[in-house]
Amino acid sequence: MKRCMMGLATCCVLMATPALAESNFLQTIKKHHLLTSTQPGKGDQNPYALIIAPVTAGSVQKNDVLADNFNNNANLQGTGSTIIDYRPSTGQMSLFAAIPPNLPGCPGGIGLSTAMTMLKSGWIIVGSAPSTDGTTKTLGPGCLIILDSSGKVAGTITGPNINDPWGNMAVIDNGSTATLFVSNAGFGIAAPGQPVQHRATVLRISLDIAPGKPPAVTSQTVIADGLGAQADASVFLIGPTGLTLASDGTLYVSDAINNRIIAIPHAATQTASSNDAAVVTKDGLLNRPLAMDMAPDGHLLVVNGLNGQVVEVDPTTGKQEGAMWIDADEAQTPPGSGDLFGITMMPDGKGFYYVEDDVNALVEAQ
Question: What is the spatial order of strands in the sheet that 260-264 belongs to?
């Protein structure tokens, strides 16, 4: 795909790789629109998490797009503290939250990661994988931060199972109760240059949500461990990133270090760490798979960290159905390397939103 030099509201044709068959979801995507900058007035950079608001509450309207920032205005990784709110109905972007960088109850500071969700009750929960100097030399264990629907901090979740909440959350939300699935990639991580640490986990957190009160943790269960994570000088931290829950209860996880997607069966009910996580697909079109979501046809859409492609995978067969260039910025090698992170389906299922870190922008593809 030829790289499009885009201003806001400019659209470009998306071109598929020859491997993409006409029957696949990505084949329905014809163009994309750069919607807004993800940089608030504070100047934070490097958008990571991307979620759709399921309800109207506080300052958020249903179907708003929330994105957080991992870097501060000096572009130091692990120091971003802002969440922006893009409203598709008006095309306007606003600052939803600016979390204090030295928040009490969040060890190591604030560096907002891909772990973020909004519950039907209006509460927002976002992960922090913090640094004080932009490198993992000063990596703190971080926390999960609970925000009300106006962006005010209402509490934190910490403990021995929480160590740099990293991957985009999968959620079962019943209103008065909820279950979160989040990866933790910080165990054993130190300065760049160390070997891969096989200590990353997938944690299930059960919440009780009483009217007018912040979510309270009722149980925590590690349902997968021994996953790979590693400090990296250029991208800070590489670890399990994409988490997507299927209707049959299978949790799919993108294992970036091992360049694969794995499946954890019965994720909501198993009582111990899984030893039977199956490999769904590996290598091929995958090139450090990061954030992931599920298309209406049940196929997985996963963005690559080492090029500007999104890859479509049939999780039933493990077949990689094809890939599409959505960021072909030739300033990186390969094109788009390091530019993609968050992805989430649009509410109507006809397209998806994603962020381009190289230009700090939110884009829609449909």
Answer: 243-245, 251-255, 260-264, 278-282
